[in-house]
Write a structure and sequence with these properties.
Blueprint: H1 13-16, E1 17-19, E2 28-29, E3 35-36, E4 73-76, H2 83-90, E5 95-108, E6 111-118, H3 120-123, H4 129-132, H5 135-142, E7 146-148, H6 150-156, E8 162-164, E9 173-180, E10 193-196, H7 197-202, E11 210-215, H8 224-231, E12 236-239, E13 250-252, H9 258-263, E14 266-270, E15 276-278, H10 280-286, E16 287-292, E17 296-301, H11 305-317, E18 352-354, H12 370-378, E19 381-383, E20 394-397
Parallel strand pairs: 6-10, 7-9
Antiparallel strand pairs: 1-9, 2-3, 4-11, 4-12, 5-6, 5-11, 7-10, 8-9, 13-14, 14-15, 16-17, 18-20, 19-20
Length: 404
């Protein structure tokens, strides 16, 4: 693919980018295609939150010079891609440039967000022209804020302009500095948001466990086998085009707190019906079956099952057994809605459970006994009934604790 000239493309910036200043509830448009606003009241959830301080800032791009680069291949591994691997990939005939990044996923409500810790002084060249050529985006990322795809950002933004990097009780909170397209809209969407590289360490990402590859005139398909050979069998090598091969090995790397660290990362392959096959070694090490009061044997993640048993034991002890009418699934490895474009369901990790599904489906308050909800929360679970688009059948592990 050819490089894209930067000259004469600045006028499209307004079509792809909005930025919001701290404390913003509604962005206000300005003539330059960038939006900003004054201060506003923070939400109750993050009433004590403050803008990111200098401790998370890095140097911004000094001079955004040079041609833009195409994002043709995304390599994503569970482990750091060492310097030797990076150099071998750079040396492949037809490779024009590579950009090492750190990648991971977190869940906010039921939305999976794949994000990257990047060097804003170099990563901008791999983004669409409107995003690349709006310096304010990269200044905000360098200052410690997050740039996020507009649809996802607006869905997850809280009233004071912040968003949480996960559902876990110890999840970090970050200010949304910009709404921006991270990858060209014609490509498979595998990066929803970017932060600077200091956040990668704070969020326990594996350093440089991913990279974007820009090609010249040679097709990415022609070097795929070489890329896979150098990246290793546990790495995902995804061609970012209309011919995305979902059957190729892919990577799941959950971040966002102590639960994510305990769950671990794994590779997986997709099935035509929207289910997935996690790495058997990860399954063997982490997925167990345990007898749970009221509902019987449950297959799920080893770190979640003792807390689930504790919660259900307390439900019994408090005389609330009849409140649990049906058990509707725990470890179910699949995409959300069986749609690969929506990312992995949290049930793939085996740390979520659905109860009383018939009367607690999406978008309604449901009839889940609120005393049962309180018990589950006390045992470290988050409840889908608290989400903006409710899922009252759903409980997921948000905090690690010891079974009492």
């Amino acid at each position: 693919m050819r490089e894209v000239s930067r000259r004469g493309l600045a006028t499209v910036a307004g079509a792809v980018l909005l930025t919001a200043a701290c404390g913003s509830e509604e962005p206000t448009k300005t003539s330059g295609g960038v939006s900003g606003s004054g201060s506003g009241a923070g939400s109750e959830k993050n009433a004590g939150a403050k803008p990111v301080g200098e401790d998370m800032a890095v140097d911004p791009p000094k001079d955004q010079e040079g041609a833009l680069l195409s994002s043709d291949v995304l390599i994503y591994s569970q482990e750091t891609l060492d310097k030797d691997t990076i150099e071998k990939i750079k040396a492949i005939e037809g490779v024009k440039a590579v950009e090492p990044i750190s990648m991971g996923e977190f869940y906010n409500d039921d939305q999976q967000v794949t994000y990257a810790g990047v060097d804003p002084s170099t990563f901008w060249r791999f983004t669409p022209p409107g995003t690349a050529q709006t310096p304010k985006v990269w200044e905000r990322v360098a200052e410690g804020e997050i740039a996020v795809e507009p649809v996802i950002g607006r869905k997850l933004q809280q009233k004071n302009g912040f968003m949480e990097l996960g559902n876990a009780s110890d999840a970090q909170t970050i200010h949304i500095g910009a709404y921006a397209q991270i990858l060209a809209p014609t490509l498979a969407k595998r990066i929803d948001a970017v932060v600077n590289y200091k956040w990668a360490e704070k969020m326990n990402m594996a350093k440089n466990n991913a990279m974007l590859v820009a090609m010249g005139s040679r097709s990415p398909q022609s070097i795929r086998k070489q890329l896979q050979k150098y990246a290793g069998t546990k790495a995902s090598v995804q061609i970012l085009g209309p011919d995305l091969d979902i059957t190729a090995t892919q990577t799941a790397f959950l971040t966002g707190g102590s639960v994510a660290k305990a769950v671990g990362s794994f590779s997986y392959k997709a099935n035509p019906d929207g289910t997935v096959r996690p790495d058997p070694a990860w399954v063997s090490a982490n997925i167990r079956t345990m007898e749970i009061p009221i509902i019987g044997p449950v297959t799920g993640h080893r770190v979640m099952l003792p807390q689930l048993r504790g919660a259900m034991s307390e439900v019994v002890a408090r005389g609330l057994r009849k409140s649990i009418k049906t058990y509707d699934g725990c470890y179910v490895p699949r995409f959300i809605g069986h749609d690969p474009s929506r990312g992995l369901s949290f049930h793939t990790y085996g740390t979520a459970i659905d109860l009383n599904a018939a009367t607690n489906y999406r978008g309604i308050p449901g009839d889940m006994n609120r005393n049962v909800v309180a018990i589950f929360k006390n045992w470290g679970f988050a409840w889908g009934g608290d989400w903006n688009y409710t899922d009252p059948m759903h409980f997921e592990l948000a905090k690690l604790g010891k079974a009492r």
